Amino acid sequence: MSFSSKVKEELSRQASTARHCQIAELAAILSFCGRVQISEHDHYRIKIHTENAAVARKGFTLLKKTFKIGTDVSVRRNAFLKKTLTYTVAVQNHQDAMKVLRATKILQENGEIGETLSLADNVILQRSCCRRSFIRGAFLAAGSISDPEKFYHLEIVCPTAEKASQIQTVIGTFGIDAKMVIRKKYFVVYVKEGSQIVDLLNVMEAPVSLMELENIRILREMRGQVNRQVNCETANINKTVSAAVRQMEDIFYIRDTIGLHRLPENLEEIARLRLARPDASLKELGEALDSPVGKSGVNHRLRKLSAIAEELREKDAGSGIGGSLSQGK
């Protein structure tokens, strides 16, 4: 089971005790995956279509628990995608359908079917608890969340810009910065920040999924920190090794060209010590000298040796090095 399916399964079993919250969640489900049918005799029917069994179960539960009405449930196999099942929860009775439509404010006072998408004017979204339920219903009906082991992404796909703007605004009331993008003919409201997805799972009341995501986030952050530290240490080791190799090459060149005994005493001492201890750090070299010096002092002497070696490479052996030799002290 995918992480998204686990979240929906948990949310489908999250039951609000307050009737107004149940109505808000059902309103979201009807808004995103419901249909209202009107017969030629002005009889209303409601249908919830979904490919997710958890969503169908939640719609069925809300209709039965909130309105005490009977529903017809059917399951069909998709004609094009043989492995996909489509679930339909239908309210066939006209009076029952009218009761649901009026409570969810989908049936307007003038008898027209429509939705009040303004947060300020929508009476079913005035309470914070109802907005939580509405977001939960919207995610159940049209949302998905990626595998957090790979990347962080939660989205709700909306058929219209008005619905996308509404759910974006409702999410924003909880301090979560949801974005909106157009994808083909749909409007997608999404959250990509891991911490904000955690906050949104908390808003929707999915504690088990929230803890699983938090554990994954902690492990990913720890792995990232370890990798960064290892990369940093590896880079430092490579840098130290490369510097030591260059220093050894310079000292070998000086030794084979004019001999280390021609060097000033302090440079000869550090040169012979480097040859004896090729893997030592600058600090270790400084501490091993007869008169210990710091890292900067060791580095200064090694740079002098590098300058002498470079001068020797440019000139014939033994010519023009007096100036550099005299500067070694």
Please characterize this protein's 3D structure:
A hairpin with a 7-residue loop joins β3 (72-77) and β4 (85-91). Helices cover 56% and strands 13% of the residues. 31% of the residues are buried. Mean pLDDT is 86; it is low at 320-324. It has 329 residues and is of the alpha+beta class. The strands form 2 sheets. A 4-stranded antiparallel sheet has the order 1-2-4-3. A 4-stranded antiparallel sheet has the order 5-6-8-7. The chain folds into 2 domains: 3-205, Endonuclease I-creI; 227-326, no CATH class. It is rod-shaped and about 115 Å long.
Task: Considering the chains and any ligands shown, give keywords for the structure.
single chain; Endonuclease I-creI; four-stranded antiparallel sheet; 329 residues; alpha+beta
Give a quick summary of the entry.
With 329 residues, the chain is of the alpha+beta class. It contains twelve helices and eight strands.
